[in-house]
Amino acid sequence: MLLLQKRQSKGIALTISAVLEGLFLIGIVALGYWLILSIILDIHVTTLSSDNERHAINLANVLLSYENLAYVKDGKIERGVLEVEKLDNFASKKGSTYDFNKSEFVSGMLENYKEIVFGYPNSLNIVTVVDFDSCKQDTGCTSWVTTLVGPSSVEGLAVNDFVRCLSENFKNTPQDWARRLGGCGAGGVIGGGIGFLIAGPLGAAIGGAIGCGIGFLTTLWDPGDIKKCGINAMPESLKYFLTSGRFAAAEGLPTLIRYPDGSMHTGRIIVSVIEWR
Amino acid sequence: MEVEKGLLPFSIAALGAIFIITVIIAVVLIFLALKFHIDINLKFEYEKSFSDLLMLSLLRLNYNSTYSAYRVLAERDVNGFDDDMKKFLSDKITLMADADCFHLANSTSYILSTTCEAYKQTGEAFIFKPYNPNKLVEEMTLTYNQVER
């Protein structure tokens, strides 16, 4: 009897310790799996962002010898010396570093983009030249900023990835059709109401049909799927910017800015590259 | 004898756990080394590019209507190297490099230096010394500590 009790208690102790060991092992494996996955993701971002940084450094170096920007003396390009007149013509916007907080300055900079042949394919490049010698506490530093677009190829465009992702995520479940019909109904009611107010019963019919169509189209996909596809199709450099809060090579490279009177100001050329791969 | 038998599964489990932990640590270390390698390579490329352009820009600067910074340095043994020249170069290096400490040196001595020690980044350039009877080419090395923001 005593032997049986002893054996039972030993068996219970062994089972408990085996379960605890198993749980401990599962914990270690799960932790290791999470650690490895997070590091792989980190390396993935580092590799892509380092590519972007490298491209930004290279492009800045090319621009410092670009004849449409650099000072030319006796037919020779002076590398690293940018001429003010050329900068004025080249830049989409000229202003102060404080202007970067103004939305019209940034939108003007993006709208007046220039196409360049030597840029990286499917890339958007923001080039900023800052004159350090002009910096003042109240007005900021004089800066020239321009948006350059590299050659584009259709295969690499992010919009293709987005459309492909949406087509792959088109679902035909009853819940999806219920959502679409709901969208049609809600759109129809709103459209019908507006149509009735404008043109009576006929307007209500037309407005209802249009509203139903719009409601149906806007609910074709689940909002979660649209968000997922949008994030997946987003350029890696933009993801990097959104997660890290800064563009690549943000510190820029040293340059000189030559004014018409021959004086030289010190400055920086800062190139940010966003690529669609 | 019975106790030894009971310990065998625990020993196997312990060995398994040690093996798994070792594998995970090894994989993580390899990935960390790869990340460090990518980061350090990029940092090196950026700093090299920055330092070279810094030296190029520094030497191309106009000191006055007659002299460039290049001539000031190249002819300093003949024309002198006064405090105004030193201040001009120091101010420009501090502004362009965004550095708190720096020293500009040739192969034998310091030409300009701050009181604090500079060691982080280095840029090099060769300048021509037309009036130097010993050596016509002088290697200029600018070492600086860029302020991290």
Structure overview:
The complex is a heterodimer of chains A (277) and B (149). Chain A has 277 residues and is of the alpha+beta class. Helices cover 56% and strands 19% of the residues of chain A. Chain A has helices spanning 2-63, 84-90, 103-111, 158-168, 174-218, 223-233, 236-244, and strands at residues 70-73, 76-83, 93-96, 114-115, 123-131, 142-149, 253-258, 264-275. In chain A, strands 1, 2, 3, 4, 5, 6, 7 and 8 form an eight-stranded mixed beta sheet that branches. In chain A, helix 4 (158-168) packs antiparallel against helix 6. The longest helix of chain A is centred in the first third of the chain and has 62 residues, at 2-63. Chain A is flat, with a radius of gyration of 30 Å. Chain B is an alpha+beta fold. Chain B has a four-stranded antiparallel beta sheet with strand order 2-1-4-3. Chain B starts with a helix and ends with a strand. Classes of the chains: A alpha+beta (277), B alpha+beta (149). At the A-B interface, helix 1, strand 2 and strand 7 of A face helix 1 and helix 4 of B.
Features:
heterodimer, A: 277 residues, alpha+beta, 8-stranded mixed sheet, 8 strands, 56% helix, B: 149 residues, 4-stranded antiparallel sheet, 4 helices, 4 strands
User: What is the number of helices of chain A?
Assistant: 7
Supply the helix-strand structural class of chain A: alpha+beta
Instruction: Describe the global form of chain B.
Output: rod-shaped
From the structure provided, what is the oligomeric state, counting identical versus distinct chains? Answer: heterodimer
Biggest sheet of chain A, in brief? 8 strands, mixed
Task: Give the beta-strand count of chain B.
Answer: 4
- The separation of the N and C termini of chain B measures 67 Å
Kindly state the number of beta strands of chain A: 8
* Class per helix and strand makeup of chain B: alpha+beta
Approximate shape of chain A: flat
What is the ordering of alpha helices and beta strands of chain B? HHHHEEEE
Q: Helicity level of chain B, as a percent range?
A: 55-70%
List the chains of the largest interface with their residue counts.
Answer: A-B, 42 and 38 residues
The largest beta-sheet of chain B arranges its strands as 2-1-4-3
Q: Considering DSSP H and I runs of 4 or more, what fraction of the residues of chain A is helical?
A: 55-70%
Distance between the termini of chain A: 75 Å
- What radius of gyration of chain B results from the CA coordinates? 28 Å
